[in-house]
Amino acid sequence: MSTSSATSTATDSATVSSSTSTVAPVFVNPYATIAVKSHVPISLELRNPNYNKWKAFFRSMCGKFGLLDLLDAAPPANPDAAWEQANCYLRSRLFGSVADDVLDLAMEPDQSARDLWIAIDNLFQANKEPCTIYLHHEFHSMTQGDLSVADYCQRMKTAADALRDISHPVTESQLVLNLLRGVNSRFTSTADNIASAPVLPSFAYARNTLVLKELRNANSVQVQSETALVAANSAHSNCTGGTCHSSGGQQQNRAGGGNGGNGSKNKGKNGGRNNNRNSGGKCGGGFGGRPGQQQPWRAPSAGILGPYPQAHTAFTGPYSSPPPAGSVQPAWDQAGLVAALNGMTLHNPNSWVLNTGATSHMSSIDGILVTRLPNSQTYITVGSGHSIPIVCRGTSFLPIGTTRFDLRHVLVAPSLKSDVHRHIVEFVEYAHTQFGHRLKCLQADNGTEFVNHNTTSFLAGRGSLLRLSCPYTSPQNGKAERMIRTLNNSIRTLLLQASMPPSYWAEGLATATYLLNRRPSSSVNNSIPFQLLHRKIPNYSMLRVFGCLCYPNLSATAAHKLAPYSAACVFLGYPSSHKGYCCLNISTRRIIISCHVIFDETQFPFSGDPVDASSLDFLLQDAPAPSVIAPSLAGVEQPHLPHAPFPVNVEQRLPTGAPSTKDEHLPYYVQPAAHCGQDDGKFHTAGCHVSIFLKQGTIVTSYPAVHVFFTTSRHGGAIPVPLPTTTGADDSAPSHRCGCTHTSPAAMAEEFKALIDNGTWRLVPRPPGANVVTGKWIFKHKFHSDGSLARHKARWVVHGYSQQHGIDYDETFSPVVKPSTIRVVLSIATSRSWPIHQLDVKNAFLHGTLDETVYCQQSSGFIDPAAPDAVCLLQRSLYGLKQAPRAWYQRFATYIRQLGFTPSASDTSLFILRDGDRLAYLLLYVDDIILMASSAELLCHITARLHTEFAMTDLGDLHFFLGISVRRTPDDLFLSQRQYAVDLLQRAGMSEYHPTATPVDARAKLSASEGAPVADPTEYRSLADALQYLTLTRPEIAYAVQQVCRFMHDPHEPHLALVKRIMRYIKGSLSAGLHIGTGPVGSLTAYSDADWAGCPDSRRSTSGYCIFLGDNLVSWSSKRQTTVSRSSAEAEYRAVAHAIAECCCLRQLLQELHAPISTTTVVFCDNVSAAYMTANPVHHRCTKHIEIDIHFVREKVALGQVRVLHVPSTHQFPDFMTKGLPVQLFTDFRSSLCVRDPPAATASGY
Fold first, then answer.
1. Phi, psi of 1051 (to 5 degrees)
2. Mean pLDDT of the residues in the chain
3. What span, in angstroms and rounded, lies between the C-alpha atoms of 147 and 375?
4. Which of 62, 389, 551, 996 fits 67 for a cystine, CB–CB 3.0-4.6 Å?
5. Can you give the pLDDT at residue 453?
6. Could you tell me whether strands 964-968 and 960-961 are parallel, antiparallel, or unpaired per DSSP bridges?
7. Averaging pLDDT over each range in 287-291, 516-520, 717-721, which range is the top one?
8. Residue 1067: in which H helix or E strand, if any?
9. Parent domain of 489
10. Where does the record place the region Disordered (predicted)?
């Protein structure tokens, strides 16, 4: 370094001379206060990758004040006071420009400015390669999503700058192409134009072009001109001298009250409104017809899906809300007019659409007439094509506030009950033609629509009977009234679920009838009415959710090639004359029938306008004279119509072929519902259901609340089982299991004999005041590992809920073996090639000895005839007793100690035997036992001793344990839950869903308040419980299952979507399982990771770890931390502490198993700061929040039991225990965690 001096810009300068030739004198004013932020405008933080930018700012500031040599050159051997002053000055500048979290990790005592500079550089530059991989992935996977163009471009540029800062710059062309790749679909054309340019433009040009396109899209206004209610004028009108003409001839001006304008009679006191647009104010006015009157402003009326388009109502003017300046307000209340129209009838009010183009008003109620006029015999043709007579005509008025709106030419027509006769005739002919049956009898009430000359003559002429109920005796016609009530309830449910107004009750009726005829009915012995009528199973694959959003194919009727091929519609049901779907176009209000429709069954267009449930109360009211056609056809019991005719006028927008007379066969077998088990109001077996599987959309069946884990608090003594075993078997399809069961007398007799032989009770007279526990028989099936039926089983179970604490039970806790213990023991036995056998204790709970006095009733079907009133004084435990698991464990543990076994302190369900060099391990899980020994002779000796004390079965080599299929080969042990996963998919109705590659999206972060609550929380909780058990052999779904289990108290739709995604991932990886190899097990290695502040609600972090014994994965965890971490280092350190705690437990367990770990356990962590803190004895500010973990980890490190090392993120296996990963990274990590497909020779067996 030269000895020249540098002059500071400060006013007062002092010369600092170097004591050596390596440091030049610098001029620093020690009292000058330099604002660091004015020279280094950004702060260096761990979370923000801006190190290179900060470095450039800071070096620029040092160059300005001549301090660069203090950063670049080594400190002198004997620094003088001037150098110390400059060094302290520079250190203070560093302190002021970096964040606290950086200082906590980089600052050391007695540190020079250069040393601090180097420590900061190492903190950010030591792991470039993992950062490069992460930033490249983030850059290339970035999409616009919901961001604006400006925000999206800013994020893209920030990601590119971050890559540049770590010496991996992105070229301008790569930046532009990646920007265009991630834009939303509405910018696709603009992006294509930019990309197809001869010379790829710059990033700034591409950004400005996209921003301009976004502004144009925001300013564009779409005008809906098509309407189904009124005809719009297609030509401009010319008004001269009060007379209006159009280019197409004379313009007709029609309004609700009559014609308006000059040249036509003013029918109605207030006249009509001219629909023409007047020029110069010379045309007939809208009200009163005064020339030159200014058009009043009228606010648009609200339609079903929001405001109507302009042409939808006669009272909507040419202006939009708010009113323009100078406009004239109408003198009458428009809302009051609609209310007045609704008030004229006693029926349920609907939204009135005024000015339907009619010249007269029509009503079926003559009470609204003020004056009556004579009427000639005239008829009106209605929409169905039939004519109805006009009874009378007259005038009426609508009260609107303080004024009244007169109506003239009001025609009164009778209600259409006379149409009933025509429908009866049509139905009789339909039944005879389609099914070959004649009508034998018609049951009805005394309504005149049935009791009239035409109907009675028609029935008498065909030899059919007309049976009438007695007056005011509705139960005689109860079958018809119950059917009407069922239909009304179904209509109400359909409309409320889709938030549709009551005006769509006719469509709801048609859909409800369609579905009712395709459901099993108890009135026909749980058969399907459609199947009885047509002799074939209905096609359930066409069923969709009523009122949902749908998109029919409109390509055949597109106006031009660039017109949209579809439009947003509402699904309204199934037309009777077409094999397709009926859809209501939201914008045009037209009905479209098509067989090519895409459905979004989670969206309901009407949901934006909620419907008051009280508006559907008319469906609950009984009609004055309800009646329904309920014929008895020969050979068929109580059939129903296939479905009611669709009650709307249909405009066919797509060409459809003739309806096929051959319905498609149902691809899945649908079994009718049945009742099973006994119902005592407290204890139930698994219910039955009818499963209807859809190829797309949602599940339309509900499943019973099946809790996978039965606990002692819920079922009084039952112990966790993987799936409910109260299932039936179908020999034709072993994989299909129905919830129905059968009583088995042979199984009952076998169970009762075992109870007697075991001395379970003795009969005694019933003591007065004693608490007698009730019971019942439970029936279930035992299955093999492939799902085939093994045997029927009956069990006498007492009702533990009727026990009283302190009287007939006290302690109830009973331990079960831990999953990690099972994997550790299997790893040791596999590595040493030990024989592994499986034992099953018959009636395990019956072996437990009771200390309390317990009475129970005699078993149903086996009551002693000599003492029918006696009760059973229990000598041994029974299934269902709260203390039964504990009594059995104490009995077994006491005896197994007599054989030389000792219980493990780490897991009390593990028993260890050591006799010299001979070893044996025994794992107890209720009545299932896994026994392994160092020699076959020792194993046979132990088994024989157990047989002398307990009734048990030696099932041979371990093959099926706790729902886990085990297959052993010379190279490994393969654990699989394939059959459990298949049953779970069938139970959820997702066997036919398309699989996914990962169980959770890489960017998904679930929130507790996101989305709407699920309709059936019980089903959500049942599936989440079942998925927890699947993690015993599937560690890759641990994080996803942990996420869905967090919201079991209040699940929402996004949470249910994640459950379904996990199920779809399981569908695509059914054969995957956990491999346990035969390699050495002399080392213990752990990997820990944390997702800092990943929870969007509480900002708590998620910890995850994976622990390997040799090459075998034996323990893993994904869990949200209990407290909030203030830094990523703190979160990572907590994760390390959790992993080390589990490692210590496993080391203790291995010590007890006589397989101690002699080497240090290595814990890998991808956070440099956390790795440094495990060995650094200095307490920083961030460590006080985790002081207990600090002392715990450092103690283990100091003892040499644990060593924490840094690992690159590319080898951080627990990543998918804390977050979602991309497909490729997820696949690589999954294979590294011993989760693989089975060997080719055994793939078909799982």
1. -75, 145
2. 73
3. 68
4. 62
5. 80
6. antiparallel
7. 516-520
8. helix 1053-1068
9. 451-543+604-644
10. 240-330
Same domain assignment for residues 189 and 267: no
CB 770 within 8 A of CB 884: no
Digit-coded pLDDT (tens) for 1049-1080: 889 999 999 999 999 999 999 989 999 998 88
Please calculate the CA angle 395-401-404 and round it to the nearest 5 degrees. Answer: 20
pLDDT reading at 596 higher than 80: yes
Highest averaged pLDDT of the listed ranges 580-589, 613-622, 795-804, 1228-1237: 580-589
- Which tokens in the block code for residue 788? 């085939």
**Integer CA distances (angstroms), 954 to 371, 670, 1085, 1180, in order:** 98, 39, 36, 60
- 817 and 800 in a single domain? The answer is yes
| Predicted TM-score (pTM) above 0.85 | no
Distance CA(928)–CA(570), nearest Å, equals 55
Cα torsion 287, 290, 296, 302 to 10°: value is 20
Tell me, yes or no, whether 44 and 163 share the same domain. no
- Closest by CA position to 1105, among listed 1155, 1166, 1172, 1187: 1166
Tell me the two tokens of residue 719: 């112990």
Strand partners, 794: 779
Query: Side-chain half-sphere of 381: how many Cα atoms within 13 Å?
Result: 1
The token pair at 1151 is 């010590």
**H helix intervals, 498-621:** 505-516, 529-534
* Residue whose token pair is 């560093």: 94
* 327 belongs to a structural domain: no
Helix (H), strand (E), coil (C) string for 647-667: CCCCCCCCCCCCCCCCCCCCC
Mean pLDDT of 113-125: 82
Mean pLDDT, rounded, for 288-292: 40
Residues 716, 783: one domain? yes
> Tokens for 306?
């929001």
Both 147 and 42 in a single domain?
A: no
- Burial of 378: CB neighbours in 10 Å, binned 0-12, 13-18, 19+: exposed
- Domain boundary, last residue among 126, 142, 170: 126
Closest CA relative to residue 1196, chosen from 1238, 1142, 1119, 1128: 1142
For residue range 459-516, what is the model confidence (pLDDT) as tens digits? Answer: 888 888 888 888 777 777 788 888 888 899 999 999 998 989 888 888 999 999 999 9
User: Are 512 and 579 contained in the same domain?
Assistant: no
Task: Write b or e for each residue in 734-756: b if 16 or more Cβ atoms lie within 10 A of its Cβ, otherwise e.
Answer: eebbbbbbeebeebbebbbeebe
Nearest to 1182 by CA among 1094, 1092, 1118: 1092
Domain count for the chain, please give it: 7
CA distance 495 to 507: 9
Whether 1054 is covered by a domain: the verdict is no
User: Could you report the per-residue pLDDT of 821-865, keeping only the tens digit for each?
Assistant: 999 999 999 999 999 999 988 777 767 778 788 898 888 888 888
Q: Which of 92, 126, 160 is the last residue of a domain?
A: 126
Residue 989 lies in a domain: yes
**How far is Cα 163 from Cα 157, in angstroms, rounded to an integer?**
10
Q: Which two tokens stand for residue 439?
A: 């009508």
Indicate if 590 and 528 belong to the same structural domain. Answer: no
Tokens of 722: 């993987």
Q: Is residue 221 part of a domain?
A: no
Q: How far is CA 67 from the centre of its chain?
A: 60
HSE-CB for 1096 with a 13 A CA cutoff: 9
Burial of 1222 (0-12, 13-18, 19+ CB in 10 A): middle
Radius of gyration of the chain (CA): 41
Helix pair 1017-1030, 1038-1045: axis angle to 10 deg: 150
**869-885 in b/e burial notation, b at 16+ Cβ within 10 A?**
ebbbbbebbbbbbbbbb
Q: How far is CA 232 from CA 225, 1007, 1132, 1181, in A?
A: 8, 49, 69, 76
Residue 811 and residue 940 in one domain: yes
Is 31's pLDDT higher than 60? no
